[in-house]
Amino acid sequence: MGNSASALPYTIGDEVHPATRKGSYGFSIHSGERKSDKKPVTVFKGEKSVMAKTALIRGGNTLDPTLTQIFPGLHHFKKSKTMIHPHILKCYATLDTDYPDGNDPSSSTTQSISEANPASLSTLQQTATTGDLIIVTEPVMVLEDYLDMLERDSEMTDTRRADAVAWGIYTLIQAVNFLHSTAKLAHGNLIPESIFVTPGGDWKLSAFHLLTPIGIRDGATGPSQHFRHFERDITPKDYRGPERIEGRFDAISTSPVHAMDAFAFGVLLPEIYRHYGCGTSSQLPQKLEKACMRLRTPSITSRPRILPLSKCPIFSSPHVTAQKFLDEIATQPIEAKISFWKSLPDLFAKRVLSTRIAKYKILPLLQQTITNLTTMDNGLTQEISKRECLALMPTLFNTAKSHLSKEEFQNQLSPVIELLFKVNDRGVRGAMLGKIGLFSEYLDASTLNRVVFEPMCSGFTDTSAPLRELTLKSAIALVSHLTQPNLEKLTRYLVRMQNDQEDSIRTNTVIFIGKVAPNLSSIARSKLILPAFMKAMTDSFVPCRLAGLKAICACRSLFDEKKLAAEVIPAISPSLADGSSEVRDAAMRAVDDLLVVLREYGEKMRLEEQRNPTIPTTTSSTSLTSSMNAAVASSSKPSAPPPAPSSSSYFSGFSSWTSSKVKSSSNVPVVATVKSTSSLSSQGSGSGAMKLKPLEKATPAFASLSLRDAGVGGESTGWSDDDFDDIEPKSNGNKSSLIPAFATDGDDDFMSQFDRKTAIRPRAGGASKLQTPAKVIAGARRREDLSNKFKKAEKIEKVGVKKLDLEDDMIGDGWDEF
């Protein structure tokens, strides 16, 4: 085939039947599909080089090189494109690869050279036979395969099989009558191999290898030269009347156009019914016996026309009647069509129409009808057109749900759904909204977001309150399939609908928000749900307030415990005094439920604190424990000079330590052990200072110690401006002592640390630094006197100090925060 075959908008698939099949005349049958939408097709392919060398019949006259498959194949190839009827095999495309552009020289004349003189060797020599003949048709199967399928189908009863075959014969009668009455042509080859069947059960006539006019082309001489030359080798003898066997073509030319095919039809019907798939126990129906005998009469002039056979009672069953209506539906009045569409579910329920008919015939017809209604110039402006569309829609979607897989539903119905959502009619929109649940089940997320959600959003702002409410109720089925941008878009509509003038819409909006909340992002939840519920709880409509309370309870898992305590319960509290007893009761239940959650959380925290004792890291508690650690460290061993203080918290910690009461005696060591936060008393509301519970021990050497007692600072604040004037560093050794570091002259001298680094002096502007002066005589004297006072105490037996039991990772050396 080369590249010319690839130019077709179809792909050729696997071979279904070979070119050697009986009655194929050189054409193999392949599956195929359209490239654009993957719709299935059937492809007939003939290799011209093989057909030119193959005799028409096995064991035929091989001495005559013209009696091969090539000329009948070319004749069929040409006629297939011109024969158009509902019951003639529909041809989508043809290609002769020897003439890919379609410029076959023989086709430019009225009669091809093969038709004019098929017995001439020169004609054969003038015919290109190197390429292929390709015919693309609607998807079909050969008649024998169809009857085999009916026989194997467990869904089919004998009655239903007989109805299916009766309908096929009825369509065959219509096709042959078209050739005779309208086209004035005789088929000439009515055999089982000339019949093909669609997946929907419609029989299609094809195999136009001998198609010929009668008494037209050749005048009084009868059929064409092509027919006369090939009919003997193409048509089996049983299907040829006496006039054909005897070669009396003059009798054929002067007889009615139907006479030759009538004989073959009378032979064809009993042959079809011999198959067990016909449901008649391999017997011709009694009502057809006399008719077939009349069709096979030897006298060519006495044979009846084929069309009156369609009045036989076997063609009046409910199945055939329904099929007839479908066949003629385009010409039926709209009222009749509406009535029929509404009756289809009942026909399916009673199994009058099979699953294959529903899937392969009814559904495509419904889709095409809706497409025509929604895309015509006037759209659905006429009331009668709207009624037909509304009658079609339930049948379309219910049939699709029952007979299509999810993939088939997606591929076949997505275009129709998109068209219907664009229809500017509230009745159609309401019917579509009622099917949102079905769409969410059978369509993928991308299609739902693009085809369904986007056009559906217009319903949120519609002026019709029932449509707004229906849009809101329907949207819940889409929530789990929406993308985050569309979810955000949906929340904006929900916020707007909380201000709707309709009480029921506001109430349903709150219910919707409660259901959609788990699917929202954390940011969207924080912005939407609690404000929405709070707004609902203040609504004037009692059911709306109840819905807000119930929604909070349903969504309590979306709030953490702190938010429940700080925001949710306070938001519910006004409802405890609501004017409606229902609201008050619901609010009380909601608070009770939330308090249970908070109690459990509090108990969990208590157990966690017992397992992992910690001290809350507030400013006052940190300063207190830091000062305590520093005192213990300085009394037990020398410590490195601490960094210069840089914040006021330093002084508050120092003051807190020096002002605490320590009870001791000369014989009992001071013990200050902090085991857990439970040993601490409550924090002060102002300074946040913490107190240790004093141990019942002997009185210490000194009752208390303050900045004023130590001679440090002014009269009120503990630090005066004079204290920053002149400070002289002083060092008197490195001794361990019970005296706090700030009161000694050793290296641990607390005050001496100020000379080691530049101190920052806070001012109103906060922009300048304070330089520490070299000497502060008055301050040094006070410290020296205080030091001498306590040196005498060193001669007394020193009491051991037990280091405070504080966790290193929580308190450290007391100066971590500085």
UniProtKB/TrEMBL annotation:
Q: Which InterPro entries match?
A: ARM-like (IPR011989), ARM-type_fold (IPR016024), CIK-Related_Protein (IPR051177), Kinase-like_dom_sf (IPR011009), Prot_kinase_dom (IPR000719)
Q: Which residue numbers delimit the Protein kinase domain?
A: 14-349
Q: Where is this region: Disordered?
A: 607-648, 714-739
In terms of SUPFAM superfamilies, this protein maps to: ARM repeat, Protein kinase-like (PK-like)
**What is a GO molecular function of this protein?**
ATP binding
Instruction: Mark out the compositionally biased spans (Low complexity).
Output: 617-638
Protein known as: Protein kinase domain-containing protein
From which organism does this entry originate?
A: Chaetoceros tenuissimus
